[in-house]
Amino acid sequence: MVKDGLTIVYTGKGKGKTTAALGIALRAVGYEKKICMIQFIKGSWHYGEMDSSKRLEPEFEMVAIGKGFVGIIDDKSPKEDHERIAREAIRISNEKIQSGNYDIVILDEINYAVNLDLISVNDVLSLIKSKPEKIDLVLTGNYAKPQIIDAADLVTEMREIKHPFQRGIKAKEGIDF
Ligand code: ATP
Ligand code: MG
């Protein structure tokens, strides 16, 4: 049996969730598939994929919407701003999923947006349930809710065994961002 479109979840504390999703995109471009990646809460930081994704255009499209991690480091904007932006990200995600323009839609860090109460788990479940049969949907971020795990076809939990951060080693260009 071949299932047309899969719902894939990368969650867990260990590193590798977003890079796994990017790996799918890189692989799928090789078959001229169309991929859209929507970044939920990363807007104020710079990640290499924001530039390298341009080299994979037009097959790969990247949309960064968020305003930085809520309540962490550089965050000074009120929660309502984050909520408004997360709702906007849901609206755009729904548009992209329903557009018929993509084979794969990646909702990067969407699980954090749910965990931070910026959007509800039902917002995500309705994206999953209403997606066209053919589309593969990839959801990343730790703390994936049980309802999302239930609704998915493939769930991988990244388990941290070691991370250089534990030894005070800072995030590294090309590896972490
Ligand atoms: P990556 O983008 O490297 O695949 P990720 O998507 O699994 O990581 P996130 O929770 O989105 O992880 O975290 C984003 C940033 O935090 C990245 O720079 C990532 O390398 C770093 N990071 C991920 N896991 C850990 C960890 N266990 N300890 C410290 N930093 C981490
Ligand atoms: Mg990530």
Task: Chart the SSEs and their pairings.
Layout: E1 7-11, H1 17-29, E2 35-39, H2 48-55, E3 60-64, H3 79-98, E4 104-108, H4 110-115, H5 121-130, E5 136-140, H6 146-151, E6 154-157
Parallel strand pairs: 1-5, 1-6, 2-3, 2-4, 4-5
Helix pairs in contact: 3-5
Bound molecules: adenosine-5'-triphosphate and magnesium ion.
Residues 13-19, 109, 140, 142, 158, 160, 163, 165, 171, 176-177 line the site of adenosine-5'-triphosphate (ATP).
Could you explain how this protein is built, in words?
The protein is an alpha/beta fold and 177 residues long. The chain has a single domain, classed as P-loop containing nucleotide triphosphate hydrolases (Rossmann fold). Helix content is 36%, strand content 16%. The protein has six helices and six strands; from the N terminus they run βαβαβαβααβαβ. It has helices at residues 17-29, 48-55, 79-98, 110-115, 121-130, 146-151, and strands at 7-11, 35-39, 60-64, 104-108, 136-140, 154-157. A six-stranded parallel sheet has the order 3-2-4-5-1-6, with helices on both faces. Helix 3 runs parallel beside helix 5 (121-130). It starts with 6 loop residues before the first strand and ends in a 20-residue tail after the last strand. The model has no long low-confidence stretch (mean pLDDT 92). Residues 13-19, 109, 140, 142, 158, 160, 163, 165, 171, 176-177 line the site of adenosine-5'-triphosphate.
